[in-house]
Specification:
The protein is an alpha+beta fold. It is built from six helices and seven strands. GO terms for molecular function: acyltransferase activity.
């Protein structure tokens, strides 16, 4: 029962939206317009399948993205270059089965060729110990905290150094070899921005 991580397909957006909005308080809800905006603009938007069933997704982008998330802007005010994980969702029945680790391994493989760090946040309200432990075991460390304007929830702002990036940049600069496994995960359309906002 292998996990397949691959690019999201347009016809899957409703299913991805349902996964997002069923994830509980650890993930901010979205509407269809915002999900479509991510599909059109996110640098990295991948889903995980197990036995042919969609079991999760991860959305990420680089620090130069035109992204209106306040958490993203918090990182950008402090760091010049990073890959930001806007959200990762795993279906509740699949949590603890390796889907999150598969996503983070895939995202890191993509990001370390292009960015020196990965950034994300974890809400500190409710039962967060397993989430914090997961991120800590994957090499993330807390670099600050932020209170979300929308609902007053406190978030731990996490960063992970990508140790291979310095070598890649020194060896190849910004011109990576033209081979399929290095190609950008997605080539997002430059569609007009949605009016929705996220933290």
């Amino acid at each position: 029962m292998s996990i397949v991580v691959r690019d999201v397909r347009e016809h899957e957006l409703d299913s991805v939206l349902a996964l997002n909005n069923a994830a509980g308080p650890a993930i901010l809800p979205l509407d269809a317009a915002r999900m479509r905006h991510f599909f059109d603009t996110a640098e990295y938007f991948r889903v995980a399948e197990r036995d042919g069933t969609l079991v999760g997704f991860l959305i990420g982008m680089g620090s130069s993205a035109d992204h209106d998330s306040r958490n993203f802007k918090w990182f950008r005010e402090r760091f010049p270059e990073f890959f930001y994980i806007d959200r990762i969702v795993v279906a509740s029945r699949r949590r603890g089965g390796g889907v999150g680790r598969a996503f983070y391994a895939d995202a890191q493989s993509y990001a370390e060729l292009r960015y020196p760090q990965m950034a994300c946040e974890v809400f500190l309200e409710g039962v967060t110990d397993p989430v914090l432990l997961f991120h800590g075991s994957f090499g993330f460390r807390e670099i600050g905290q932020r209170v979300l304007v929308r609902n007053g929830t406190r978030a731990a702002m996490l960063m992970k150094e990508l140790c291979s990036h310095a070598w890649v940049e020194e060896t190849y600069g910004k011109t990576l070899p033209d081979v399929p496994w290095i190609a950008r995960v997605r080539d997002p359309l430059q569609a007009p921005r949605s009016t929705g906002t996220s933290e």
